[in-house]
Design goal:
This protein has about 700 residues and is of the alpha+beta class. The chain folds into 3 domains: about 60-255, Penicillin binding protein transpeptidase fold; about 340-350 and about 350-495 and about 510-605, 3-Layer(aba) Sandwich (Beta-lactamase); about 620-670, no CATH class. The protein contains 25 helices and 16 strands. It is an enzyme of class 2 (transferase).
């Protein structure tokens, strides 16, 4: 049993005094800090409650290409001119203690923190109406303690200098209600064709639910979810004493009549590009929609106005006006990732859906450069031979089989090289390569190159059956073409706030993600699709446009029953074109099958017309030798075709081709065959086919 001695009592009393003294010091310190902040906020005076300024978007040459919401859908009305139902619904769902707190709801903050801790994630918000309004008035894109501190200061300044009614009025006049609509007056007119003062209870409850997620709770986006949230708000209003049970039931049973949407979407020049730029802001820079479109920003983009105009003109001239086929196109600087031109469809006003960014389609044979890069990393070379013949592959431990076919069932029925396989787009060679190196290798390469959609682990993935986004695979080609340095599709170079301060600048440092030598070897092989000297059992896939090209390009085309692709590059520019139907309709017309290649070749020639002709420069560690592309051996003077081909140093062939030496032995000079291109009768009739 412990004995309490006078000495122990004395120590305990000292400890208690010390704790009490320290607590008092902390209390004084915190009180001083809080008082100082309040006094500072009072000294700073009231923050401006003026209507937000328009945000302006500029092209890379400094010309203006867009202005976001310059007052056409934003109106300011007095609180007295806003339906009381709107006020009650907003306070019920956003901030039930609005008229009681001093800007911060400490009980709600504690509850939200507890909920987040239990869920080990951010699951519940605790921002008051004043805090939300402060967030709209203050802009910094980074999620930092400094931003939170500034928002807290703005909150105190609002509460210190304005009445609750002033704050609520400002909030209701600046909150975002979706579709470019700001403020309750514009929202009332946009959704219901009336003034804010005339809104009924069910209408007010629906509008109060939209700001939480305009892209989710707008009745024009998802009517079911919008009205589900309306019911939640109505029940909350009853719990808060704003409604009787009878009023609740009447409001729930009232069928809402929305204003018919008659206005067309107007984005001005390069609408699809502007949408993609705004998406980059919200996704990568943590700027919410309201901040982007209401804070008077100056957004400097990567858009090349001349290239964009050329792209739009070429698409309009190439695709028949009678055709319903759609298209997507992306042009990127492979050194920086800067998007120079973008088309997401044939008519932005009719369909803002961005097929270059949002659509996921099967890429067909355009996936093969990724596969062959993987193979080079596993020891393959351009001279590696495999047999092109009908082949059935078993996988999944023998439980399944897959039998690919070449176009029109044409096969060499002999060995061909990887150099030929990519130029002729031999499917059997591709699947054999995929199975031999391991199906997981293509998946890894896709991830390295930034594909946002994962390639499936099956044999058909070698032929592009796993859907991709056009912008992703064009960017992947850019990485291969630039020697393996990581780039990302970039739409914005710089952002300035209303005061001219730079708040964002694009990062230009590039990480090496691919083997530089293997990337160059792959790029050089991709030039083969335009080289008719590689013709064999069929023609190279780029023969239909080769004569229209005036410089060296590396590329690959691809075809499925519903998609047509052409992606190719010069050192200064990589461009991809997709054509197809939105609803899975097959491409049956011969003319429509040629659109992608025609658009690509015309655009590349015109876009680079004023630029110097550049070649892909071989890095250290590769060796260029002349080979016979038919067998991959070192070419002799007697070979009918000699093609300069690059290999990773140490993997180049060492054996000379003796086939043509043997053929020529014993022949008189005039009897020796003249060099000819290998072109069968079927090639002449199917030059349009990939």
């Amino acid at each position: 049993m412990d004995v309490i001695t006078p000495k122990r009592i004395k120590i305990t009393l000292k400890t208690l005094r010390a704790i009490t003294f320290i607590s008092l010091l902390l209390l004084v310190f915190l009180s001083t800090v809080i008082l100082s902040i309040v006094l500072y906020a009072k000294w700073q005076g009231p923050p401006s409650l003026s209507v937000p300024q328009s945000t302006i978007i500029y092209a890379s040459d400094g010309s203006k290409i867009g202005e976001l919401h310059n007052g056409q859908k934003r109106y300011w009305v007095n609180l007295d001119d806003i339906s009381q139902h709107v006020i009650n619904a907003t306070i019920s769902i956003e901030d039930q203690s609005f008229y009681e707190h001093n800007g911060f709801d400490y009980k709600r903050i504690a509850g939200a923190a507890l909920a987040d801790i239990k869920a080990m994630a951010k699951v519940q918000g605790a921002s008051t109406i004043t805090q939300q309004y402060a967030r709209n008035l203050f802009l910094k894109h980074e999620k930092t303690w400094q931003r939170k501190a500034n928002e807290a200061l703005y909150t105190i300044r609002l509460e210190q200098n304005y009445s609750k009614d002033n704050i609520l009025e400002g909030y209701l006049n600046t909150i975002y209600y979706g579709h470019g609509v700001y403020g309750i007056q514009a929202a009332a007119n946009y959704y219901f064709g009336k003034d804010a003062s005339k809104l009924t209870l069910p209408e007010a409850a629906l509008l109060a639910g939209i700001p939480k997620g305009p892209n989710l709770y707008s009745p024009y986006v998802n009517r079911e979810k919008a009205e589900e949230r309306q019911h939640v708000i109505l029940h909350t209003m009853q719990n808060e004493g704003y409604l009787t049970e009878k009023q609740l039931q009447e409001a729930i049973s009232t069928k809402l009549v929305y204003k018919t949407k008659t206005e067309k979407v107007e984005k001005g020049f390069a609408g699809y590009f502007q949408d993609a730029a705004m998406s980059e802001l919200s996704d990568k820079l943590n700027l919410d929609v309201q901040a982007v479109q209401t804070q008077g920003l100056k957004i400097y983009t990567t858009l090349d106005v001349n290239m964009q105009k050329k792209a739009e003109e070429i698409v309009a001239e190439t695709i028949s006006k009678e055709s319903d086929i759609q298209t997507g196109m992306v042009a990127i600087d492979p050194k920086t990732g800067y998007v120079k031109a973008l088309i997401g469809g044939r008519n932005y006003e009719e369909s803002p859906f961005n097929r270059a960014i949002q659509a996921k389609r099967q890429p067909g044979s355009t996936i093969k450069p990724l596969l062959y890069y993987s193979a080079i990393m596993k020891g393959f070379t351009p001279a590696t031979e495999m047999k092109s013949e009908p082949t059935s592959f078993s996988y999944d431990d023998g439980k399944a089989t897959y039998k690919p076919s070449n176009y029109n069932d044409y096969y060499a029925n002999d060995f061909i090289t990887m150099l030929q396989a990519i130029a002729l787009s031999d499917n059997v060679f591709a699947v054999k390569t995929h199975m031999f190196i391991g199906m997981e290798e293509l998946i890894k390469t896709g991830e390295l190159l930034g594909l946002s959609t994962k390639i499936k682990e099956n044999p058909s993935a070698a032929l592009g059956t796993s859907p991709v986004r056009l912008v992703d695979i064009v960017n992947a080609y850019g990485i291969i073409g630039n020697g393996g340095k990581k780039i990302e599709p970039t739409f914005i170079t710089k952002i300035e706030d209303a005061q001219g301060e730079v708040i964002y600048k694009a990062d230009r440092e590039k990480e090496q993600v691919l083997n530089e030598q293997a990337a160059f070897v792959t790029t050089h092989m991709m030039k083969g699709m335009f080289d008719s000297s590689i013709n064999d059992y069929t023609s190279v896939t780029g023969h239909s446009i080769a004569d229209s090209l005036t410089r060296d390009y590396a590329g690959k085309s691809g075809t499925t029953s519903t998609d047509s692709w052409m992606i190719g590059m010069a050192p200064q520019l990589v461009t991809g074109v997709w054509t197809g139907y939105d609803k899975g309709k097959t491409i049956d017309l011969v003319q429509e099958r040629s659109y992608a290649k025609t658009i690509w070749s015309t655009f590349m020639e015109e876009a680079l017309d004023k630029q110097s002709v550049k070649a892909f420069r071989p890095p250290d560690g590769v060796v260029g030798v002349y080979i016979n592309p038919a067998n991959g051996k070192l070419a002799t003077k007697d070979c009918p075709v000699r093609r300069l081909t690059y290999f990773i140093a140490g993997t180049e062939p060492t054996q000379y081709c003796e086939e043509h030496i043997d053929e020529l032995n014993g022949l008189e000079e005039e009897q020796k065959p003249v060099e000819q291109k290998k072109e069968g009768w079927f090639d002449k009739y199917f030059k349009w086919w990939d």
